[in-house]
Amino acid sequence: MAIKVQYNKTSLQQLEKQLKIRERSLPTIKSKESALRMEVTRTKDEVHTLELRLENEIGGYADMAVLWNEFRTDLIRVRDVSLSTRKIAGVVIPVPGDIDFEIQPYSLFNVPAWYTDGLELLKGLARTGIEAEFARTKLELLEHARKKTTQKVNLFEKVQIPGYRDAIRKVKRYMEDEQSLSKASQKIMRANQEKRKQKEEEMTV
User: Fold this and answer.
1) Dist CA 133 CA 46 (whole Å)
2) CB neighbours of residue 68 within 10 Å
């Protein structure tokens, strides 16, 4: 990582400050990445379980296929799903609550006796389907956050922290070289002054 530096004490202090910020933040980000990784695994299992449950519920009603042909498809629909949110490892996740079904009026005398049970079955299927959909959304959000966090860990660990360390080394080396040169030139100046002084003293003798 190319970091713009100035070879002076102020720049060195700034670089050291930026390095400390990243070194202090890294364990927290790593911990968040680990928590997100665990949640992603857990949510994948949750999605799989719900999808399997939905599949089994639909499969369980297959033997009633002939009866369903008599069912009015406009009789029931989902009007609303109440939502809340919760945070998982810093990620806001939508959580489904109560499901509000709209059921069209129908005459109990003019429809088959199983209609009422059929409505309850459809409500159950809808609930499972909605839960599965929300679980998939949760998985997408967590997966996205995990990828972003992993990128940040890699950026800090493999790019920025080594980059700042390298820049600090360069500035320190430059300043040490400058100091050595300054000391050397002072030595030479003193030596020259002493030679001049010696010559002047010899000439006055």
Assistant:
1) 11
2) 13
| C-beta of residue 80 within 8 angstroms of C-beta of residue 100 | yes
* CB-CB contact of 169 with 42 (8 Å): no
Tell me 7's DSSP state: S
Residue 142 in contact with residue 43, Cβ under 8 Å?
Answer: yes
Structure tokens at 177: 């070289």
How would you class 45 by CB atoms within 10 Å of its CB: exposed for 0-12, middle for 13-18, buried for 19 or more? exposed
Q: Can you spell out the DSSP letters for 131-162?
A: HHHHHHHHHHHHHHHHHHHHHHHHIIIIIIHH
* 3-class SS of residue 176: helix
Which tens digits make up the pLDDT trace of 42-98? Answer: 999 999 999 999 999 888 777 666 666 777 778 889 999 999 999 998 899 999 999
pLDDT less than 70: residues of the chain: 1, 63-68, 184, 191, 200-205
Residue 59: strand, helix, or coil: helix
